[in-house]
Design brief:
Blueprint lengths: L2 H11 L2 H10 L15 E4 L4 H18 L3 E5 L8 E7 L11 H8 L10 H7 L12 E6 L5 H14 L3 E7 L2 H13 L7 H18 L10 E4 L4 H13 L3 E4 L15 H7 L15 E4 L6 E6 L5 E4 L1 H20 L10 E5 L5 H10 L4 E3 L4 H8 L4 E5 L5 E5 L1 H8 L7 H14 L9 H15 L3 H5 L7 E7 L7 E2 L6 E3 L1 H11 L6 E6 L5 E7 L3 H25 L1
Parallel strand pairs: 2-4, 4-5, 6-7, 6-8, 11-12, 11-13
Antiparallel strand pairs: 1-3, 2-3, 8-9, 9-10, 13-14, 15-19, 16-17, 18-19
Length: 560
């Protein structure tokens, strides 16, 4: 009997469809079509109850296929408070693989309220057998502090339960913490990880690193942290107490996150380059950091004058982390990084400032590779290296490393070189201060503070490591965005070649000129990014490209 017909028989004999139909009634009708992307399914919270119920159903099936617990996180990150979303996390703590996205969309957008027209197909596509239905799937669930998150999480729980699966509710935690719980649970052979492991793991790594350089957690200087009125506020306060850090957490979203991401949070600070709400009284020149709503992004800044700031974005975070690694490796092996038998790589997108890229390549000697925009591309590429570092300018990123490759490197140190052996342990502890599965604002703050302590520099000296090239980002509408095809890393257009030739020729007019054009993934527009030696030139270069694209698109319409 085929898998398809086996499951048809099972469903018809059982009461699964009937139970799904009954449960679905209280969640209302599906309100539009929902696409799954990096952010999961995201919309107004009022549109998501049925979506979340069905995600519970799908996650339970995916758990059966993976033979391991699957994570689900209720959050909408940097979106306003009325929005929410639901993300599916793979058993190993990484994002759900792209190959499952079309099937997830089919289940969630099914017009049949009982799902009888899609579930047999889902079982077949997942390769589930009759034996598999006898074993319950397991779903790990977490949520942020939005007022809608509690009910949406309960909908996920019911979806998992109705399929005969179990669930474990972690309650309120950040998105990176939820990823880490899935990761640790997979290492625990299915035994549910506890949230205390998160704090203990990174406290141990930080304390060991600082101890190795003659310092303690209390050596970290005072930092004001803008939590964006999100879940990161309460979670980071707890982590700070555990680690005995001198942190002043502002915009913590207690008792309710009514002003979530409203004139605060990493997205606001990075895009607007303005002080977040409630920071006017913070002294000038003092070190500050900002998380986004679900605490997976971080940027730093300090007040330059009463209301203006100097921004330290993801590009500068890479520069700082790489400087620390380079200094440690040079102190251990007394060689340049490129001479060592270890594969180190920095992964960026075309949006990375060329000032940062040049510093990392030319000054630090680290190879840099470009990938398409999106965390899934950055993380996947970073995994290819023995030590891989990636950050987007918005502050999302992490550091990955292979323990076996690091162990092989350590064997090159002669036993009698006691100092170098000790310094290698410092390097190992530093690399351990990173969430290995996802960008994590709270952990990255620890990594950044560890770097500042080791290098013994202020935030002002950090900002002066290299000069950012002034840039301008803009956009222009087009009739057919699909005619504009970028190369693999989105730094150039391969079609139409006339447009790329214009961009290249115009770059010669401006000192340090660089620009690229890429089609938006969600709108009928082209996004334009331009850099040059001065802000005036960057603005003019971006306008030149925009004007040419407008004329080019109009000409194509007339010819057509």
């Amino acid at each position: 009997v085929s898998t398809q017909s086996t499951w048809d028989c099972y469903f018809m004999e059982g009461s699964v469809f009937k139970n799904i139909l009954k449960a679905s009634a209280k969640y209302g009708e599906l309100k539009g079509f929902f696409s799954y992307g990096t952010a999961g399914f995201r919309s107004l919270a009022t549109k998501l109850p049925l979506v979340c119920f069905r995600v519970g159903v799908f996650a339970s099936l995916l758990s059966l296929q993976k033979k391991a617990p699957i994570g689900v996180m209720i959050t909408a990150s940097h979106n306003p408070a009325p929005d929410n979303g639901v993300k599916i996390i793979n058993f190993n703590g990484l994002m759900m693989e792209q190959i499952y996205e079309p099937l997830a969309e089919s289940v969630i957008n099914c017009k049949d309220p009982s799902l009888s027209s899609i579930l047999p197909e889902a079982y077949a596509k997942l390769g589930l057998t009759e034996e598999d239905r006898k074993k319950p799937g397991t779903v790990l669930i977490g949520k942020d502090t939005r007022s809608s998150s509690k009910d949406l999480a309960m909908a996920v729980c019911e979806g998992a339960s109705i399929m005969g699966g179990g669930f474990f509710d972690y309650g309120y935690l950040t998105t990176p913490q939820m990823h880490y719980m899935a990761y640790k649970t997979s290492l625990n052979m299915g035994k549910f990880a506890s949230l205390s492991q998160y704090g203990d793991d990174f406290n141990s790594a930080l304390s060991a690193f600082l101890g190795g350089i003659g310092k303690t957690n209390e050596s970290i200087e005072l930092t004001y942290v803008d939590a964006g009125d999100g879940i990161g506020g309460r979670q980071f306060e707890e982590l700070s107490k555990l680690l005995k850090l001198k942190m002043k957490v502002v915009n913590i979203g207690v008792p309710e996150p009514l002003f979530l991401n409203d004139k605060c949070g990493a997205e606001f600070v990075q895009k607007e380059k303005k002080l977040p709400r409630n920071f006017l009284d913070v002294p000038e020149k003092v070190k500050c950091a900002s998380f986004d709503g679900d605490a997976d992004r971080i940027v730093y800044f300090y007040k330059d004058t009463k209301e203006s700031i100097i921004l330290i974005d993801g590009d500068r975070i890479i520069a700082l982390v790489c400087t620390t690694i380079q200094s440690l490796l040079k102190g251990i092996f007394h060689k340049d990084v490129k001479e060592l038998p270890i594969h180190i790589g920095v992964v960026q997108t075309a949006y990375a400032n060329n000032g940062a890229t040049t510093y990392i390549r030319s000054v630090l000697g680290f190879p840099v590779v470009m990938v398409p925009t999106g965390v899934k591309y950055l993380h996947a590429k970073a995994e290819e290296y023995d030590i891989g570092i990636y950050f987007e300018a918005n502050g999302h990123g992490t550091l990955l490393y292979k323990k076996d490759k690091l162990a092989n490197l350590e064997k090159l140190i002669p036993a009698e070189n006691v100092h170098e052996k000790a310094l290698f342990q410092v390097l190992s502890n530093f690399l351990a201060i990173a969430n290995p599965v996802v960008g994590d604002a709270m952990v990255n703050l620890l990594l950044i503070e560890a770097s500042l302590c080791y290098l013994n520099i202020t935030i002002q000296l950090w900002e002066k490591m290299y000069r950012d090239l002034p840039s301008r980002t803009t956009k222009t509408p087009v009739k057919d965005k699909f005619m504009f095809k970028p190369n693999e890393d989105e730094t150039k257009l391969v079609c139409p070649i006339d447009v790329q030739n214009f961009i290249d020729a115009t770059a010669l007019k401006y000192k340090s000129g660089r620009a690229f054009v890429r089609p938006s993934g969600t709108e009928d527009i082209l996004r334009i990014y331009a850099e040059a030696d001065t802000q005036e030139e960057a603005d003019k270069y971006a306008e030149d490209v925009k004007s040419f694209l407008t004329k080019y698109s109009q000409l194509r319409i007339i010819i057509a």
